Amino acid sequence: MAKIIESKVIDTSVSTELEACENIAHIHEKNGRIGENAPKFFVQTFGCQQNEADSERLAGLCCAMGYEKASSPEEAELILVNTCAVREHAEKKALSIIGQYKHIKDKNPAVVIGVGGCMVTQKSRADKLKMSYPYVSFTFDTAAIHTVPSLVLNALRGGSRKFILSDEWKINEGVPIHRESKHMAWLSIMYGCNNFCSYCIVPYTRGRERSRSADSIVEEAKMLIADGAKDITLLGQNVNSYNGGDGVDIAELMHRICALPGDFRLRFMTSHPKDASDRLIEAMATEEKIVRHFHLPVQSGSDRILKLMNRKYDTSAYLEKIAKLREAVPDVSITSDIIVGFPGETEEDFEGTLDILSKVRYDMIFSFIYSPRSGTPAASMEDQIPHEVSTARFERMLALQNKISDERNERFLGRTVRVLVEDTSKSNSGMLTGRGDAVRPIHFAGDRSMIGEFVNVKITRATTFCLEGEII
Ligand code: 5AD
Ligand code: SF4
Questions:
Q1: How many alpha carbons fall within 13 Å on the CB side of residue 66?
Q2: How far is the CA of 87 from the centre of ligand 1 (A)?
């Protein structure tokens, strides 16, 4: 486990909360709950990388409150659930897990349970938790992660349950972070989204775009590298519209981070095609440390559907961007998000999506069946597509993409790739796993002691979903 990285800049909103952390830690200490006796916390995370990064902040706050990490919710006295709302399935899963925590609270009424994230940043969902889940002590919205210590303190003191929507979309610098991995790090550079794609709940649950200052980000990158980070991912809902002031865009920010000394590599997630600039493509082409992987979600291959989605580009503009990218960075790995079954999607629209997959030849896609989200324009559009139709299209699309992925992966056969050893393989603990420049995991034999190091791996086998090789 990496150590907690403290930020140099601490906003007032956060310093008050750090005082609450001290108060809680003091209460635990007074009750002899320190060292081996310390109470434990468990953070359950659903959803995207932004949520994973937020959960590392929640864990940082829990540590500052004097809690130790639990390996299961059953042994925890503080349980925090970080929810996702991007599709209905994610909300259902979170509610089912929260339902299961009732027996933990029944066994030990002193357990504090709080729920945060995109699901409860919608009033209707926070109200539902308040009404139907009486053992949940509080909810907190996505911009109020830093307020968890006061909420916990209030619960520990037997205060009333709190279900607050702050609606204040600010950046709160200085929340301590307890990172899951020492060698791979998320680095949030901005929050929120201004794009209002018609299917997406995110602009409502994460508010308007706001960028952290370039100095704070570079400072955090410096600390991460000093602490052993070898793979840093810059995070934001649309990192291409990063605006650090004084003309610092995402390309300039990456140049500044790449100029830091150290053997590390830099990634970024996620990009909107309308904002992916020539400067960013050029940065990728020229900076050794930037991984040659571009996640550029197209969502649909039909111009009619892209318009209904409010994506603000058409397929020809998108393909032009892809052509530029491939020209500047010839071996780039391109990936995409695709939604199938958007309202009104005809067979012809869907054929357009298959067509764009064949034209772009993505290394990999993340594909989703459209899920109506109440409050978004698409949810009330006419002609919602029956689930059987979407599922059948989804299967056809996967079959095509698997064939393309197979062919794309074969290009690595015989190549030697510089790989950061990330972990032991999930399917075979005797094997190690890591990634090179492309997105596919690479499995190879090796000793656990290599985790966190760069090694050279010669690729000997390529399958649809992964590559295999041997260290040379
Ligand atoms: N239904 C299905 N997929 C969605 N996404 C966002 N909103 C929805 C929705 N309502 C997908 C998009 C986005 C990814 C993170 O999730 O493809 O890029
Ligand atoms: Fe959602 Fe579109 Fe913003 Fe991405 S760019 S978070 S899909 S609204």
A1: 23
A2: 7
Strands 416-424 and 431-435: antiparallel
Q: Give the position of tokens 């998320």.
A: 186
Say if strands 40-45 and 68-69 run parallel, antiparallel, or are unpaired: parallel
Q: Which atom of ligand 2 is nearest to the CA of 337?
A: 7
- State in Å: Cα 61 to ligand 2 middle: 28
Q: What is the pTM of this model?
A: 0.95
> Using the 8-state DSSP alphabet, how is residue 378 labeled?
G
Two tokens, residue 412: 């690595």
List phi, psi (to 5°) of 105: -65, -35
Say which amino acid occupies 119. Answer: M
- Distance (Å, rounded) from C-alpha 422 to C-alpha 231? 10
Cα–chain center distance at 459: 29
Write b or e for each residue in 322-359: b if 16 or more Cβ atoms lie within 10 A of its Cβ, otherwise e.
beebbeebeebbbbbebbbbbbbbeeebbebbbebbee
Q: How many other CB atoms sit within 10 Å of the CB of residue 96?
A: 9
Which tokens in the block code for residue 125? 């969902």
Q: What is the mean pLDDT of each run of 10 residues along the chain (472 residues)?
A: 60 94 96 95 97 97 97 97 97 97 96 98 95 97 96 97 88 94 96 97 95 96 96 96 94 98 97 95 97 97 98 98 97 97 98 98 97 97 97 98 95 96 86 90 94 97 93 94
What tokens were used for 343? 């309202």
Which residue, judged by its Cα, is nearest atom 13 of ligand 1?
337
